[in-house]
Amino acid sequence: MTTLFVSDLHLDAVRPQLVALFLDFLKGEAAHSDALYVLGDLFEYWVGDDDPQAVGAQVADGLATLARSGVPVFFLRGNRDFLLGTDYASRCGMRILADPCVIDLYGRPTLLMHGDLLCTDDAEYQSFRRNTRDPAWQEQFLAQPLEARIAFAQHARAASIEHQRSVRPQDSGGDATKEDITDASPAAVEQAFARYGIDLLIHGHTHRPAIHKLVAGDRPRTRIVLGDWYEQESVLRVDADGASLSVP
Ligand code: MN
């Protein structure tokens, strides 16, 4: 049997074919797995569990059906859906994990993260992250009317795309609808391996899917980066014998 990891689906009503692909994945491959881990950015944006958008309802139904069939579903918040709360998670039948957290993956302690915490070279983003994870900020934000929250999310997304361009001006000719996310800092990766004493790290966020073999603290380590679902599915499959990542 296999444990599945996905992240950065960025599900949104503007890409209904990707929503359909994910719902098919839940009914198909995921239904025959040991567990499903969603490592953040399941949604393009999330402004509160009270948002009545249809995509949220469809995904909740799909995940709840999977969970009811006996496949445990775990979710870790991303930088787009960090406001996803326990109400929505319980509608999905999924358990919210802390970012970072260590799980036992077929006997192998494994560190899971969304990945934005590793992008320490982007000081402006890390400051935004600290502010918006403050419970007082979140309480104040969630108390605003839905329309105002949606406007904030759209503004934050546009500002983030602009900011990424200013951080990496050499890539300014890229796809205007996608952010060019600053990559994980090698020092932050080394620190994570050392701090948690694990040899396997799985994260998403950077949209640079790969299995990296490296040596840190004189030990061989593996960092697996999940891919995004903007145009296709991207799934990491792990069983007792090892890992395989479908890299588009
Ligand atoms: Mn992300």
Question: What can you tell me about this protein's structure?
Answer:
With 248 residues, the protein is α/β, with parallel strands linked by helices. Helices cover 34% and strands 21% of the residues. The chain contains 7 helices and 11 strands. The strands form 2 sheets. Strands 4-3-2-1-10-11 form a 6-stranded mixed beta sheet. A 5-stranded mixed beta sheet has the order 5-6-7-9-8, with helices on one face. Strand 1, helix 1 and strand 2 (35-38) form a beta-alpha-beta unit. It starts with a strand and ends with a strand. 31% of the residues are buried. The model has no long low-confidence stretch (mean pLDDT 92). Manganese (II) ion is lined by residues 8, 40-41, 78-80, 114, 116, 205.
Index terms:
248 residues; alpha/beta; six-stranded mixed sheet; five-stranded mixed sheet; 34% helix; binds manganese (II) ion
Count of DSSP strands: 11
H/I helix tally? 7
SSE pattern: EHEHEHEEEHHHHEEEEE
Major sheet strand order: 4-3-2-1-10-11
Proportion of β residues?
A: 15-25%
How widely separated are the two ends?
Answer: 23 Å
Main β-sheet description: 6 strands, mixed
Unreliable stretches (pLDDT < 50, length at least 5) are: none
Structural class: alpha/beta
What integer value in Å does the Rg equal?
Answer: 18 Å
Share of residues in helices: 25-40%
The molecules bound to the chains, other than polymers, are: manganese (II) ion
So what's the overall shape? Answer: globular
Kindly report the average pLDDT value.
92
